[in-house]
Amino acid sequence: MLRTKSLLAGLGLLALIAALPAYSADAVKLHGTRFEMEVPQNWQPGYKDLDDRLLMIYFKDAKSGATLEGVYLRKVQPATFTLEDFKKWRIGAEDKRYEGKSHTVAKAEAITIAGAPGNYLMTTWKEGDKEFEKHTAQYLKDGRQYMVVLSGPKGKTDKGPFDHAVKTFALGKE
Fold first, then answer.
1. Which H/E stretch holds residue 16?
2. Does 36 have pLDDT greater than 60?
3. What is the average per-residue pLDDT within 141-151?
4. Distance (Å) of CA 143 to CA 28, 76, 80, 81, 86
5. Are 23 and 37 in contact (CB under 8 A)?
6. 114: domain range?
7. Which residues contact 31 (CB under 8 A, 6 or more apart)?
């Protein structure tokens, strides 16, 4: 039942994305109940909905191998949970995920996302002889956690779609 629900939701999302008009020649506005952002038009879309953990919409660039993600984490945090806590949690999760792969935080700074303060993290890691990078923008509102993430091969990943998605990020109309 859950698999069928996820499949139908994913197909509906893909149909919605295909029907949306482009705001520019290379970007499409993604409208969702949790968040909105503009995404590259010709990247391949995908969808993950893990009821207990997260909702993720992602777009993959076949040329570079880069992936742009919009993520909503389902667990609502208490009012005492701060952006600094969110940053520490993300770094800890990435350290665990890329353990033994020379994972490092190359840059951490404050940004503006959805007109509010947020975090920016740039991390790098290695898989065999290949180097990868990940750009993460974090947004926290009323204990709800959102992220825009771009990852891909180091030196081949154009950060432009990430910057544009962060610039156009907004909360959805629930």
1. helix 2-19
2. yes
3. 93
4. 28, 5, 8, 7, 10
5. no
6. 2-171
7. 16, 20, 172, 173
The 3-state DSSP class for residue 27 equals strand
> In this structure, how many other beta carbons lie within 10 angstroms of the beta carbon of residue 96?
9
Name residue, tokens 């204990």: 143
Per the structure, the count of domains in the chain is: 1
Rounded Cα–Cα distance for residues 164 and 81 (Å): 27
Residue 31: band (very low, low, confident or very high) from pLDDT cuts 50, 70, 90: confident
The Cα–Cα gap between 23 and 3 comes to 33
Q: Which two tokens stand for residue 62?
A: 């076949």
Tens digits of residue pLDDT in 60-114: 998 899 999 999 988 889 989 999 999 999 999 999 989 889 999 999 999 999 8
Q: Are 107 and 126 in contact (CB under 8 A)?
A: no
Amino acid found at 8 = L
Closest residue by Cα to residue 165 from 22, 19, 27, 55? 27
Length of the chain as a residue count: 174
pLDDT band per the 50, 70, 90 thresholds, residue 174:
low
- Average pLDDT, rounded, for the chain: 83
CATH of the domain at 65: 3.40.1000.10
Question: What gap in Å lies between CA 53 and CA 132, rounded to an integer?
Answer: 25
